[in-house]
Design brief:
Blueprint: H1 3-23, H2 31-47, E1 73-75, E2 85-86, H3 89-102, E3 110-117, E4 120-127, E5 130-136, E6 142-144, H4 147-150, E7 168-176, H5 179-191, H6 200-208, E8 220-230, H7 237-246, E9 256-259, H8 261-274, E10 282-289, H9 292-298, E11 308-312, E12 316-329, E13 334-346, E14 349-355, H10 359-365, E15 372-378, E16 382-388, H11 402-408, E17 413-415, E18 422-424, H12 430-441, H13 453-461, H14 476-479, H15 487-500, H16 505-511, H17 519-529, H18 532-537, H19 540-544, H20 551-562, H21 564-575, E19 596-600, H22 608-617, E20 621-623, E21 632-635, H23 641-649, E22 652-654, H24 656-663
Length: about 675
């Protein structure tokens, strides 16, 4: 695989995990594994500057985006960035060294050490002491307004206590769910035969993004910082914590104000001993410069402050016996090896299964059935086998042959050259079938209510469906006999299937489960071609001409439509009346008809979402990257490299005022 292919593959993989985590409230890999992917991409981009993207376009230098449809967008008065992560004390000392270059006269720097809460970031706005707004992080510049979903939570008073309130202040924190509440909700779902939620953080994220409110789920909030504040009277981060407490808001029960990085490290070690006593999940520590003036002087990168860093605690580990190796099959046919373990207590839970990732990882670690292995819970979410202990290996142990194992199990699969995963070659594999259909019906795709994993399992097991199109031939009589179903629930499912036929084209494309094609790419493709019929006939070269569609994704799309089974599926979906074609939005009449506009920087009064809507309403198309095909660049404050590239290419650059004159 060439460096270009590796870079495209990493960008696509990171984008997929971003989509899962930020938009779908789901997670397949640990934070550490995710950061490893990003670091590998950074290394490749630095080694290949000609292949690098502008900072705002590469996932290594931008904030994840949790915005979803259905919520009003609100522009933060001050950017709400994420934090850089570190996993070792040496990297923490490197952070201190970088700051000392900015403040060379200081022998030791004043730090504040706070518990890092594993929740959902939120910004609360108070005007003259009264609560007016709650907004998610979004893309760091604007987020989803979730005021109505959070109003009434015990931790968010309508009026701040005391009398010394700023005229206007954004107070930042994390929304979380206790383990007890998480267990209560999952028990209810288990009793109803519904799919269980994976962890409290993902459930919290999904809860705050429910259009119908938070449905009686008990959420809490901890606040620890501020964004915009007028007037700004605070001198230190410690002052902010005290003010938050004095206003009757909840902040962390334990923080450390220390001098120097060694004292900060001691505080982190103390926090590691205390963290399991908190009622919120704590996966690390945040180390911040305490002095606000120094924070301002240190400044920011494109995605994170230079004056703060997150230290992630090492994953908890335990020894146990690997009894056997089994496999798990994903919706795209990827075959993932799974370790079947003697149950062991780890991070407060009993672990009996763990991921082995792929064939190469098994070979590299030389993991064999019967081995004593070290298991860890990285990020306290997904167990994985870290290594085997050869000294404790049975005498008759043999290296594990993954290909032979698949053959013995009757699993028809192949490994494509240059890829780590084996993939199912048979379209009729029931596990993959379930995964494909569950993905199709999910909230992120066709959003078919009452059609979760448990229901799909029943439909497949009873041989009522074999693919996505079969869903649309189900009748009331077919679904009524399902477990946990009665007249009303059966009717609701049939009605939901009928409603889903009118979902926009991009949701259908996303629901087809084409490898590497996420929600944003589906939107770009739908907007460009307007129908599945046109998409099925385009070449790889034509696809890569679309901004954001790389070679690997284009080849995946082309290969998917070249498969006769997939073409038959599309025809059946068409015959059942699904929305397989729609008007191409960029053909609207208007002053920007047929024009491509790239946004960069922060505009004086328009959010990115508002500017994009104005571009599309004027017949134009908003793009994320500057090229020779770009007609205009709409530039605001801190425009950066996109502006520079536009100037080099001689592309017309518009201010917000000039843009308004053009489109209004």
């Amino acid at each position: 695989m060439t460096d270009r292919e590796k870079i495209e593959s990493l960008r696509a993989e990171i984008a997929r995990h971003d989509e899962l985590y930020y938009r779908n409230s789901d997670q397949e890999i640990s934070d550490q594994e995710y950061d490893k992917l990003k670091r590998e991409l950074v290394h490749l981009e630095e080694a290949n500057p000609d292949l690098a993207l502008a900072p705002e376009n590469t996932p290594t230098a931008r904030v994840g985006d949790d915005r979803v449809e259905g919520f009003a967008k609100y522009k933060h008065l001050q950017g709400m960035l994420s934090l850089d992560n570190t996993y070792s004390d040496d990297e923490l000392r490197d952070f201190d060294t970088r700051l000392k270059k900015i403040f060379p006269d200081e022998l030791s720097l004043p730090y504040l050490v706070e518990p890092k809460i594993d929740g959902v970031a939120v910004s609360l706005t108070y005007e003259n002491g009264r609560f007016v707004r709650a907004v998610t992080r979004g893309n760091g510049t604007e987020g989803d307004e979730i005021t109505n979903n959070l109003r009434g939570l015990p931790d968010i008073p309508e009026k701040l206590a005391g009398s010394k309130h700023p005229k206007l202040i954004e107070i930042r924190g994390e929304i979380y769910m206790t383990d007890e509440e998480f267990a209560r909700i999952n028990q209810e779902r288990e009793d109803q035969g519904l799919e269980l939620f994976k962890n409290p953080r993902n459930l919290t994220s999904g809860t705050v993004k429910q259009l119908g409110g938070i449905s009686g789920r008990n959420l809490h909030i901890v606040l620890y910082g501020i964004g915009h504040c007028e007037p700004l009277t605070f001198k230190t981060q410690s002052d902010i914590h005290q003010a938050i407490h004095d206003w009757g808001l909840r902040t962390q029960e334990k923080i450390w104000r220390v001098e120097g990085i060694e004292a900060a490290w001691s505080a982190i070690e103390e926090l590691d001993q205390l963290r399991h006593s908190f009622d919120y999940a704590t996966d690390g520590a945040v180390v911040k410069l305490d002095n606000l003036e120094w924070q301002k002087e240190a400044g920011f990168t494109s995605k994170a402050p230079r004056w703060a860093i997150a230290y992630k605690f090492a994953a908890e580990q335990a020894e146990t016996i690997l009894k056997a190796i089994s496999v798990q099959i994903g919706r795209t046919g990827a075959v993932t090896p799974v370790a079947e373990l003697e149950p062991v207590e780890l991070a407060g839970t009993t672990v009996s299964r763990a991921t082995l990732h792929n064939e190469d990882e098994i070979s590299r670690k030389d993991i064999r059935p019967g081995d004593t292995v070290v298991v860890q819970k990285a990020g306290e979410i997904i167990p994985q086998v870290l290594r085997s202990i050869p000294d404790k290996r049975p005498a008759d142990s043999q290296p594990f042959d993954f290909a032979a194992f698949l053959q013995e199990q009757g699993i028809e699969a192949e490994r494509v050259e240059g890829q780590a995963a084996w993939r199912i070659t048979s379209k009729d594999n029931p596990v993959q079938m379930r995964r494909r259909i569950t993905h199709f019906s999910s909230k992120a795709c066709m959003d078919i209510e009452n059609l979760g994993e448990a229901v799909v399992d029943q439909l497949v097991s009873r041989e009522l469906i074999k693919d996505q199109a079969d869903l649309y031939q189900l009748s009331f009589e077919d679904v009524l006999p399902l477990e946990k179903f009665a007249d009303k629930s059966a009717r609701n499912l049939i009605d939901a299937l009928e409603r889903s036929k009118q979902q926009p084209l991009w949701r259908l494309i996303h629901g087809l489960g084409i490898t590497h094609v996420g929600a944003q790419a589906s939107k770009d493709i739908a907007g460009h071609y307007g129908s599945l019929e046109k998409l099925a006939s385009v070449s790889v070269e034509e696809l890569t001409a679309i901004d954001g569609i790389g070679g690997i994704m284009a080849e995946s799309i082309n290969a998917w439509f070249a498969d006769e089974t997939n073409r038959t599926l599309v025809q059946r979906l068409t015959d059942y009346g699904l929305n397989v074609a729609e008007e191409i939005t960029q053909t609207k009449d208007g002053p920007l008809q047929g024009k491509t506009v790239v946004l960069t920087g922060t505009l004086p009064s328009l959010s990115r979402g508002e500017a994009t809507a104005m571009i599309e309403a004027a017949g134009g198309r908003a793009s994320s990257s500057v090229s020779k095909k770009t007609d205009y660049v709409l530039a605001g404050e801190s425009a950066g490299s996109k502006l520079e590239k536009a100037q080099k290419l001689g592309i017309t650059v518009l201010s917000e005022e000039a843009f308004r004159e053009l489109v209004e």
